[in-house]
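Marked as duplicate of an earlier ticket. Keeping the data here for the record.
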Amino acid sequence: MTYPRFLKPRLLEACKDTPLLLIKGARQVGKSTLMQELINLFGGQSFSLDDPNILSIAREDPRGFIDQIQTPVLLDEVQRAPEIVLPLKLRIDKNRQPGQFLLTGSADFHTLPMIADSMAGRMEIRTLWPLSQGEISNKQESFLETLFSGSWPVSLPYISREDLYHKVIQGGYPEAIMRTDIERRSIWFDSYLEAIIQKDIRAISVIEGFESIPNLLTILAARSANLVNAADISRVLGLAQSTVKRYITLLQSIFLIFKLKPWFSNTDKRLAKAPKIYFIDTGLLSYILRLPPMWSLSVSAQFGQVLENFVVSEVLKQCSWAKERIDAYHFRTQNGEEVDLILQDRRGHLVGIEVKASATVSRNDFKGLLTFRDISKERFSSGIVLYTGDTIIPFGENLWAIPLQALWE
């Protein structure tokens, strides 16, 4: 089954004015499929550096490889051959025609920053996430536009807690979604992680102690949607803090996890400046946490952090194809007042999103948003609490309780 990818219009725009387009993202999110669609439109050819023969040629004679290929061309998994970066730059400098090179990369550690430095002014970089809820249902979301305009509808379609739970633990990997049987999906995630750890991490870094990576993933899963505390994790794992930080960077580089930076004001010293950590996909997160296939009260406490991870990742997916740049942060004071997600548009307008797994909302749930409004002052546009109820409720000026399905409905 094929799914629409709402990033595609942005990619087509880039191909009209930029010589090189790089799409980065986790394995199995659909990068190759999407870029193959583009190269087919342009009548070009494609080479995968996962192919041992192609990889050998690209590494042994990178200048000859790049000079001989006809454009437009798709080069898949470029992190495997960093040797081609300089020849790419030299060829583009001779001919700045847009849409010549389409690249994909499943690692963001050594090669991609090297490309970014070498290709300044010649390249556009985009991230492809796992499928969003709108892509799964073939209905493009308008949540960001509504969020910044504050024009919420009168009502939203009802979704049961059981259906919401299913969406969260299913995640957005196309191959995982196809497996409706929970055991078959678990087998896919198990094989996926094994391949990522044994193949991709080994390809980008020489490290010892691979047996610690699964344990680290389990610990990070239990602490998802929380501040990163490398010192505490190092004590639990019995590893040096520097090693833990390096491993976390590696997991970021292969797009299993990501960090959300803190929002802070230079005039306010009360704000925490540590990032929060999230998983790229809540299907993968739910698999690592061993969440059951059906909703039950026994998973309610754990479900809260997974639901926050779900909301943050869904919003960032929508930010990735938004026409205007939107930056994302979290907000937390030293006293523990917090807002799960802060979004800032190009004009500096700010909106806050708090996530609650509860079906009821009280004034106390807006405590962090009210603190953020006081600190951000005139830049504050609106604040919402996304919750699992079914009614849109105003809670004061520019403050709303919104059913969580507003994310995709």
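See parent ticket for discussion. The first helix runs from residue 8 to 15.
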